[in-house]
């Protein structure tokens, strides 16, 4: 099995500070206003740009390079010191 399955999980405003979600399945998970400060999301499956654009913070979060670059370009405030 590859990482936890959090498919369709309701993680609205969840405090996921420094959580390891490496290779987790986050398909259709609601991450609105979730605190992902310092979280490890590298290799996370079914995680979209749209899901991450709605979180509270991505400060010091580990992300796959493609998502990281796109999000920093469009939503730089997500990476600011909270």
Compose a concise summary of this entry:
This protein has helices at 49-52, 65-74. By secondary structure, it is mostly helical.
Order of helices and strands: HH
Apparent shape: globular
Largest sheet: none
The structural domain count equals 1
Rounded radius of gyration (Å): 11 Å
SS content category: mainly alpha
- Mean residue pLDDT: 95
- Roughly what percent helix? 10-25%
List keywords for this structure.
single chain; 82 residues; mainly alpha; 17% helix; 0% strand; globular
Walkthrough of the structure:
It is built from two helices and no strands. It has one domain. Helices cover 17% and strands 0% of the residues. The protein is globular.
What is this structure's SSE topology?
Elements: H1 49-52, H2 65-74
